[in-house]
Structures are given as C-alpha cells and as structure tokens.
Amino acid sequence: MASPIPVKEKKLMDVKLGELPGWIPMRDFTPRGIAGAFQRGYYPYYNKYVNVKKGNVAGISMVLAAYVLFNYCRCYKELKHERLRKYH
C-alpha cells in the first residue's frame, strides 16, 4: 500500500529503507538548507534540555560529550601512534 504522504515531504524517521535512495537526492544540500536543518534540530533540543524551569546539567553535558567524542575520533590516528610508541 502506498503512503499518502509524498516521499519528499517525509522526515528521515518516516522513510522506509526502499524509499531512502530516492529520498536523499530530494534533500536541500545548499548552505541555506544545511543551516535550516541545524536550526530545526537546535530549537527542539534547546527547549527540551536547556530552556526548562528546573534545569540541570544534562543538556550542556550532552553537548560537551559530543564535542569530546568528535575530537577523539578526529585525533584517533595520532593517539594510536602515541599509545604504541616505546619510551625507553
């Protein structure tokens, strides 16, 4: 049964695996489109974890953890060579 929503208007979580190759080229990969995608993700995150009445460090700590993981992945090659180097 075909979906009543066109593939172009579906969100990533609603796309079936068979529709994925046709869905990806329909996305907007211009700088404005990428900035819009970040903005659409940022505001729900901010409102859910940062801008709350009884806030805690969960929202900020997730951003910090993502930053640390990103930098570790970026520098893994150099860190691997440091680990295997002999110091005597």
Could you provide a short overview of the structure?
By secondary structure, this protein is mainly α. It is 57% helix and 0% strand.
Describe this structure in words.
Helix content is 57%, strand content 0%. The protein is mostly helical and 88 residues long. The protein has one domain. The chain is flat, with a radius of gyration of 20 Å. The model has no long low-confidence stretch (mean pLDDT 82).
Layout of secondary structure:
Layout: H1 20-23, H2 31-50, H3 58-74, H4 76-84
Distance between the termini: 68 Å
| SS element count, helices | 4
Structural class category: mainly alpha
User: What is the residue-averaged pLDDT?
Assistant: 82
Radius of gyration based on Cα positions: 20 Å
Strand percentage:
under 5%
Total domain units = 1
* Range of helix content: 55-70%
Order of helices and strands: HHHH
Overall 3D form = flat
Give the biggest beta sheet.
none
Features of the shown structure:
single chain, 88 residues, flat
